[in-house]
Specification:
The complex is a heterodimer of chains A (about 300) and B (about 300). Chain A has a single domain, classed as MetI-like fold. The longest helix of chain A is centred in the middle third of the chain and has 32 residues. In chain A, helix 4 packs across helix 14, helix 5 crosses helix 9 and helix 13 crosses helix 14. Chain A is mainly α. The model of chain A has no long low-confidence stretch (mean pLDDT about 85). Helices cover about 70% and strands about 0% of the residues of chain A. With about 300 residues, chain B is mainly α. Chain B has one domain: MetI-like fold. In chain B, about 75% of the residues lie in helices and about 0% in strands. Chain B contains 14 helices and 2 strands; from the N terminus they run H-E-E-H-H-H-H-H-H-H-H-H-H-H-H-H. In chain B, strands 1-2 form a two-stranded antiparallel sheet. The radius of gyration of chain B is 25 Å and the shape is flat. Classes of the chains: A mainly alpha (about 300), B mainly alpha (about 300). At the A-B interface, helix 1, helix 2, helix 5, helix 6 and helix 7 of A face helix 1, helix 3, helix 4, helix 5 and helix 6 of B.
């Protein structure tokens, strides 16, 4: 009997849920999604397809979204070019790994340590700091690059990994996202820890961090994406300290003759952050649910 | 006497909250040095003439006067940046929301796939360079090939060399790239809206999805809307790399010149750092101003 009433209730709920939906609206909106989905996807597919095109197929009129004789030649050519460099490619990979590794660990560790007290306690200065973090979301790295460069050179950090890592660690998006996530942790759990004699720091790493796993995984992904794309710019000029994306970007600017190779490069640059996002998608969505800016 | 009491209270505050301040400190130091100090330094240096070699020389408002009165390229940059921001800002913001809203009604698997489809361009590194092939100036580019095949044009168009096409193409590419963190934030926000609100609304006579959107969905996710606004405004005002990479620097007749590429010009190429900082300060003021206005508008939603 209960099962029946349950089913009936579910049916009624579905009816209510569907009440405000018209068929025409459904079709129209689905069409919009499909059209824009194609728009979003087309350049990406084109990038993937191009990476596997033999030279004979790159220059066909009109251009095509399929490849007749897929080849790995572009990747082999890329390998050939990289072998010709003075500096072994593994060195660039090491640089990227170091920058990404330190940058991500720094962002997550320092960000979460700062976010926790701001999210869960009231103390002199806490609300001011909370406001500063929100306003600083606007301090775009590109806008502050020049004074940052001046500060880096005063500190003797230009042309070191730190010149790229520290400004990234000092941006507030991470603290902001973590703080919003931590606000939801029930106070009772923190009270219980306090009664057990745990200080703020112990509470942070024994209780808060395990509970915030989705949030810091998200931050790892966002930070990884940012650090992966960095080319070092003016901050790192020694060739042997440059990251992978710098080298790959140099290859792409080699012009039309390198169309095949640069497509292979674009594919590599594209695949890694996308793969990272796919793996962590559910964690990311859980964190973003709390990303709102409260008035 | 009073002074003494105050000092005592400082000591007791420190005693009571020591752990909290110490936990904030590592981030705080890095933030102050590499985020806050650069902003303050920009403001200071914007009143000086400085080239990195000799000490900054105070010149009052001279940089601001030159920038606003004498530098006609800057005015072009401001015009382009404002067109950019006024088109890509609102459009990308609305796109982020509409796609998030439509995707949200889908079952789990298509939702995850479409989220990825829309989000992927924003994390695709330099994959936007593929637009160079799509708008290639020869007949091997998609745009030219199709226009000629359909008989709309008879000659290949020099997309990136023609003044009138540069902004529209940059806007298209920027929109393609713009479904980033705000988009994710919106999707996630939509999932947290209390479902029972929709049921009671249906009973109380909300007739279609548009009313539902305006009266329930939007007000319930105001925090995400605010956050998304900050991110989209900041991003649409700081376009530079795609302009430099796609249409070159300087672009034809400065048609793709933005405030940030102007900053890049004076900061990284000409080493007129005081002047570059003035540009940064002006851009920063524009950002803050836009944010304040948009936040005010958003408070009225629903």
């Amino acid at each position: 009997m209960k099962i029946f009433s349950d089913a009936a209730r579910r049916l009624r709920l579905r009816k209510i849920k569907r009440r405000n939906r018209s068929l025409g609206g459904d079709i129209g909106l689905t069409l919009i999604l499909l059209i824009f989905g194609m728009f979003s996807l087309f350049p990406l597919i084109y990038t993937v397809v191009n990476a596997f095109k033999p030279l004979s197929e790159v220059f066909i009129f009109p251009p095509r979204l399929k490849v007749d004789n897929p080849t790995l030649n572009n990747f082999k050519d890329l390998g050939g070019i990289l072998e010709g460099f003075d500096i072994p490619f593994s060195r660039y990979i090491f640089n990227t790994a170091a920058i990404t590794g330190f940058g991500t660990v720094g962002t997550v560790l320092f960000g979460s340590m700062a976010a926790f007290p701001l999210a869960k306690y009231k103390f002199p200065g806490s609300s001011v700091m909370g406001h500063i973090i929100v306003y600083a979301l606007m301090f775009n790295g590109a806008v502050t690059a020049i004074p940052n460069y001046i500060i880096m050179s005063r500190l003797g950090m230009v042309d070191t990994y730190w010149a790229v890592i520290l400004p990234a660690v000092g941006s507030t998006l991470g603290v902001y996202l973590l703080k919003n996530f931590m606000v939801q942790i029930p106070d009772s759990m923190l009270e219980a820890a306090k009664i057990d004699g745990a200080g703020e720091f112990q509470t942070y790493y024994k209780i808060v961090m395990p509970l915030c796993k989705p949030a810091w995984i998200t931050l790892i992904i966002l930070s990884f994406q940012q650090m992966w794309g960095t080319t070092g710019g003016i901050f790192i000029y020694s060739e042997e300290l440059k990251p992978v994306s710098y080298v790959l970007a140099q290859l792409v600017s080699g012009g039309i003759a390198r169309t095949g190779v640069s497509s292979a490069v674009a594919l590599i640059m594209l695949v890694i952050p996308v793969a990272a996002f796919i793996i962590s998608q559910s964690n990311v969505m859980e964190t973003m649910a709390t990303s709102g800016l409260k008035e | 006497m009073k002074n003494n009491r105050e000092r005592q209270s400082f000591a007791s505050i420190w005693q009571k909250h020591k752990a909290k301040y110490l936990m904030i400190m590592p981030f705080g130091i890095i933030f102050v040095l590499f985020t806050l100090l650069p902003v303050i330094a920009s403001i200071f240096l914007s009143f000086t003439s400085f080239n990195m070699v000799s000490a900054p020389k105070f010149i009052g408002f001279q940089n601001y006067i030159s920038l606003l009165v004498e530098d006609s390229v800057f005015l072009t940059a401001v015009k382009n940046t404002m067109i950019f921001a006024l088109v890509t800002g609102p459009v990308s913001y609305i796109m982020c929301f509409i796609f998030a809203w439509l995707i949200n009604e889908l079952p789990r698997v298509p939702r995850a796939i479409l989220t990825l489809v829309f989000y992927a361009p924003s994390i695709s590194g330099n994959a936007y360079l593929v637009w160079q092939l799509i708008f290639s100036s020869d007949t091997y580019g998609w745009a030219n090939a199709w226009l000629m095949k359909l008989g709309i044009t008879r000659q290949a168009i020099l997309w990136f060399q023609t003044e009138g096409y540069i902004m529209p193409i940059l806007i298209i590419v920027q929109l393609w790239l713009s479904l980033g963190v705000s988009f994710l934030s919106f999707i996630a926000g939509l999932q947290t809206v209390d479902k029972s609100l929709y049921e009671s609304a249906a009973v109380e006579g909300i007739k279609n999805r548009w009313q539902e959107l305006w009266y329930i969905t939007l007000p319930s996710m105001k925090p995400q809307l605010m956050f998304g606004a900050v991110m989209q405004i900041t991003n649409s005002l700081s376009v530079s790399q795609i302009s430099i990479d796609l249409v070159g620097f300087p672009s034809v007749n400065y048609a793709g010149h933005t405030i940030l590429t102007h900053l890049y010009d004076y900061g990284n190429l000409r080493y007129e750092l005081g002047y570059a900082c003035t540009i940064a300060v002006v851009l920063f003021l524009i950002m803050v101003f836009c944010n304040i206005i948009v936040q005010k508008l958003l408070r009225r939603v629903g």
